Amino acid sequence: MAVAPVNETLTLADLTRDPYPVYRRMRAETPIVEVPAARRIFLTKAKHTKMVKDDPELFSSDDPVTPMRRAFLAHTLMRKDGEEHRRERMAMQPAFSPKVIKTDWADLYRTIATDYLDRLPRGETVDLFTALCGPIAARILAHILGLDEVSDADMQRWSQTLIDGAGNFGFADEPFEKSDAANAEMDAVFDSLLDRHRAEPNNSALSVMLNAKNPIPMSQVYANIKIAIGGGINEPRDALATILFGLLTNPDQLEEVKRQEAWAEAFEEGVRWVAPIQASSRRVTRDLEIDGIDIPEGVTLMTIQASANRDEDLYEDGESFNVFRKKAPHQAFGSGPHHCAGAHISRRTVGEILLPMLFERFPNMKLDRAEDVVWSGFGFRGPLNLPVRLS
Amino acid sequence: MVQITFIQPDGGQTTLDAAEGASVMETAVNNGIDGIFAECGGAMMCATCHCYVDEAWAGKTGARVDGEEDMLECAAAELRETSRLSCQLKLSSELDGLVVHLPEEQA
Question: Does the keyword Acyltransferase apply (chain A) (predicted)?
């Protein structure tokens, strides 16, 4: 029996800049470690992160002091367990199913993608992150949710505002003032769309929830849509940018991916390599022990899926991007009851539709200078820019 | 131990000895059977462990559990009468010799 070692010197700024060397060392030396800067005990091995995510009774998602509740002005399904979580999640899950994507959305997504690719300038440097990855992720999500009328800019702004509020662990005033304003805007827009979705039921999340035989309360319908906005733009945006970076900096792999049409494999490798959601929190519900380390009731564990996805137990040279590596399950979409509800959608939209369309349209796309790409993020991570020349 | 056979869409078969009490999903994952992803680890939240119980065994595997049907609706491959989430199929002596077929796609 031993208490977790403490890493006193590590700062959130270090992790935001580049967490991977830190995690690599933790996996080797202190796989279970308290990080006072994050007020959490980090779990960095795949077997531990999966075990915690898979057991919601011992490791609850319900965090009584989460800033998420204040930011969303609601107790959302992200922080619920058991039947309550399942009911709210299943209320919108049909909108995210592979069959609905195929029957209702695939053609629309291709049309949207064509339209967005048409707008990109050729022969000059263009930042694909801001010109494509963000806006197209916003557009696709707007349709899935039934918010067709909302602009890409509003979708992205709402999303970032909710994320900033949910990550406002110091409970500063300003992020909440902004999230309050965004909540008011969103509520007004949702209110204005109810008649349309009631009159013309469809497979968007808002419509599916509104027209259910046994609907969940309206407050939770709105909270669900907000969670999807907060959690459904950055991830496909960052996944797309990360995969493009991986392929463009490994031209030999890109050629092989094109030859084999291995876009699905490229997608999986990209999200394994740099998981858009790097870490999650779970509250320990009773005193227990993980691999000989005492974990007291009430502490918050942070499962670092970014680290689990490079764990030497599962991957040879996990630090590098290698589409053709030996297959092993990754945890980029998490595990357990809170497994990413958008996993199917992101595979279809980013992996099956956007990646092949982009390289078909611009077969000689080149990254200007890989060293100019800035990566950032501890909780969420991805490139902040992607300067390419399209041809 | 009980025997279980997995049949791939291309007809390839694998027969394994499995522990009673384990789920069909766990047995597949622990033995590296292709075609069972089981991304949510058995929480009935991802529909990536979808399988078809062989007609001959369909009467013995019992009814779908509460909530399973809704998740099966979200599976990638065609939903059939014999569709189950393999995380909800627990192996027992009555299921010794069970045969399950894997779908064309899971995600």
Answer: no
